[in-house]
Amino acid sequence: MLRKFFHSGYQRRRHFQAAALPKSKRTHEYGREEAAGLRKKVYRILSCLLVFYLIYLFGWSSALRITALNLSGSAGETQSGDIEKTIWQAMNQRRWLIFPGNNYFFADLKNIQRQFQQANILAELSLTKKFPHTLNVGLATRLGKLIWVSGGQFYILELDGKITSQLMIKELVNVKMPVVYDLADTRVVLGQDFVNPRTVALIADLYTNFGKYDLPDADLDYFKVDGPQANYVKIVTKQGFEIHVNYLDSSADQFAKLKKSLLAGIIDLTKVNYINLRVAGQVIYK
After folding, report:
1. Which of 13, 124, 139, 176 has the most crowded Cβ, counting Cβ within 10 A?
2. Which of 131, 127, 138 is nearest to 65 (CA)?
């Protein structure tokens, strides 16, 4: 009698399970893994130490501190000692509450400019850093006050647009300040925001830089505005004609198109009453 034999599934499962079991690692393989892990930890520690050292070197180390000021130019009657004192005080303030303000990389030049404005020092600064210890300071006289004339009365106008005090006419003798006539004769309120600060800034810029535009036969005398909040200024020249400019466009661009017209012979300055530069791309004159 023939007998049939069947392979037991139990035996097959045991064989499969045995094949799936991982082989045990040898001792030297465990040693290599431990060494590789140790090396990674060492690299991490060294990397952290390097980062901290670089932060210290570039942030707090005295090797990169600004220790010298190189002043050039002139600021009129402003004492150089006051200028240096203000700069050092500004750099003594910390940057982002962490880094020293006199560090070469973290010295805040804009903050130094703000400190000068707050201290009302009449100097324009151009600041550049010279690696690793020097701050170059270029100085120029900055306009501090203007004279505002309204209703036949004379006043002191500050750069922030406030009128702070009234002047007697005799005090205007030999005063080197721009004079601005208010054609609306607006009643003045002392100590309050009165004149558009952007208009004041435009007048100060024109007073300081008018000669740089190199216009033939045009010398600045004084200014006129149609009111305290006007966005344009009328420059009255010593030759008698006026030039109208605004703060909505660059002063340099406005005078560039005027100079171009003059060089082309389009305008004869001896025969004009006013020139209007306020319209973009045009020079209007009468």
Report:
1. 139
2. 131
